[in-house]
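Hi all, long-time lurker, first post. I run a small reading group and we've been trying to get comfortable going from sequence to structure in the token notation. Rather than ask abstract questions, I figured I'd post a concrete chain and ask someone more experienced to write out its structure so we can walk through it together at our next meeting. Sequence below, copied exactly:
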Amino acid sequence: MKTISCNFCGQQNNKVIIQGPDLLLDLPGDFRLVKCSNCGLIYQNPQLSFEELIKHYPDNYLPYRSDDGESQQSVLSRISQNHGLQRQCQRIINKRPIPGSLLDVGCATGFFLKAMSEKGWEVKGVEPSAYASEYAREKLGLNVQTGILSDLDTHEKFDVITLWDVLEHVHDPLTTLQEVRQLIKPNGLVVISLPNPSGIEARLFGNYWVGWERPRHLFLFTPELIQDYLEKTDFSFLTIESFNGRLSLTLLSLEFWLRAKEMPEKRWRPILKILYSWPLRIATWPLYKLLELINKTSVMTVFAEAKESP
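-- Answer (accepted) --
Happy to help. Here is the structure in token form:
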């Protein structure tokens, strides 16, 4: 582990705000998140190296799902996940109705890329997980390179670049956005989804909020700070929208809290199943819709355009 300075402003003054273990995978370690006293960036400090982090991304890590009909997921679960994918696609199409070229950074097993290709887009992806990238190539027939963004072998510039739940995972988000800027066309659209530490659930669940996801989330950005990052890397901010991360994330945070209180799983597991039933999901829809309108859910999606070259 290595002690680092703030990625945005370079200052070293900070205060600890969250500390604890890997709640999602229950792997060994105790990890600390600090908040920069100057600009407000939240980041893991000291920070695991890339090599140390690899063990926290096993092949069964949730984003590396392979639910194209071969898995044992329920039909309703697949319908729900497909609905989420279609919402992602539609938000982009609303802003770029004519299909073009799209790069998905950290594309996991490629289901978003597959959905966009079916809508006429020319798609490409880059993904550090060998398992996930191979799945995207072999099972879905996608053009996906194994590696990180700086490894990408291309001279192409893209109309749209997406980073779905990615920027919080990289060791240098400022450099990553600069690399994105080099790969995007003038006025190209960049789409970045991120956990929102200013949301209601971060305050409600505190240390057990799913968005901290220690130690994989190395950085967390407030809505204001991510706009500063975009301005610093030659993008024009457009808007922040919230449309991902509803009841499932709330209940995962609740599960982390229940486990920490050492309540017997046989007592609370049936209750969580009831809470995640379709009637409850429908009943809570108005509440989440309201929180989405004011950008206070656990996930925010930022849209920006590359500025014209001087």
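A couple of things your group might point at:
The longest strand covers residues 184-195.
The radius of gyration is 19 Å.
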